[in-house]
Write a structure and sequence with these properties.
alpha+beta, single chain, 74 residues, two-stranded antiparallel sheet
Amino acid sequence: MTSEAAQFFIDRCYEGKQIRSIHPYFNVKYELENKKYIFTRELLDEIIQSGKVKATYVGAKSVNLVGIEGMNEG
């Protein structure tokens, strides 16, 4: 089961049926609808394990994530 925090970032990788790329920074707080999520390496692992998103770049401070075609629910 995917945590609410992981689902937050997974959802950002899709817009309807289109795939998007996002570029979150490690240890930065992201907020949506008064809910706050901190992007960590542990959260990245959970996001990748969901099978819905892949990392195209992982650096010391940030990562590029992109949705996988056919895996969105929109």
